[in-house]
Amino acid sequence: MKYALRTIAAVLIAAPLYAYAGGDPEHVKFPEGYEKTFAKYATMNRANQTQVAKLYANDVAISSYQQGNKSAPGSVVIMEIYTPKKDAEGKPIAGSEGVFEIDSLSAVAVMENRNNWDAAFPQENRTGNWGFAVYNPDGTPKSNDLNCVQCHTPLQAQDYLFTYQKLVDFVKK
C-alpha cells in the first residue's frame, strides 16, 4: 500500500511535466501560412540522423540577427521535420550534399520568443523567453514525448537555438 501511494504521487507530480514536455500549443500557436511569409534559412539532417529538417524564421528573428542581436520578442523559428526515404535495409537515403531524400512531412516544431507570456505558462515550461509547441502537418497539436526545454536550455550562448550559427550565417548573406 505504501509503495502504491508513492507511485500514484509520482505519477501525479510528473503528469503536468509530461503534458508540456514537448511544448505547449495553448500558448505557442501554429503560425498559419509561415511557409509563404517566413524565410527558409536551412535544410539539413537532424542531429539524430533519422530525420530531415527545413528551418524557417520570421522577419522579427531575421531583423534581430541582422542587427547582431539575439532574437527579439516576436521572433518565431519553425522546424519542419521530415521522414526520409529509406533503402531496403531501412537506412535513410542520402541525396545531394549528404542531406537525406525526403519522403513525408511528419511534424512542425514552433519556437516563439515573447517577453510577455501569460502567467498560466510557467517559466519551467519555457527556455528563457522561448516557448515551444509541436504540431502535425495539418496544424493540429501533436502528441510529443520530447522535452524541448530540457534540450534547449543548455544552449543559452546560442540564443537557445541548435541552428543559431546557420541562422546567423543566413542573415549575413
Strand order of the largest sheet: 1-2-3-4-5
Mean pLDDT: 87
Order of helices and strands: HHEEHEEEHH
Q: How helical, in percent, are the residues?
A: 25-40%
Q: For the terminal residues, how far apart are their CA atoms?
A: 64 Å
The helix/strand class is alpha+beta
Output the radius of gyration: 18 Å
Count the DSSP helices: 5
Q: List unreliable stretches of 5+ residues.
A: 1-21
- Tell me about the biggest sheet? 5 strands, antiparallel
* Shape descriptor: globular
Q: Your description of this structure?
A:
The chain is of the alpha+beta class and 173 residues long. It is 26% helix and 23% strand. It has a five-stranded antiparallel beta sheet. α3 (59-66) crosses α5. It is globular. The model is unreliable at 1-21 (pLDDT under 50).
Short structural summary:
With 173 residues, the protein is an alpha+beta fold.
Attribute tags:
173 residues, alpha+beta, 5-stranded antiparallel beta sheet, 5 strands
Detail the topology: elements first, then pairings.
Blueprint: H1 2-20, H2 34-37, E1 39-45, E2 52-57, H3 59-66, E3 76-84, E4 102-113, E5 130-135, H4 148-152, H5 164-172
Antiparallel strand pairs: 1-2, 2-3, 3-4, 4-5
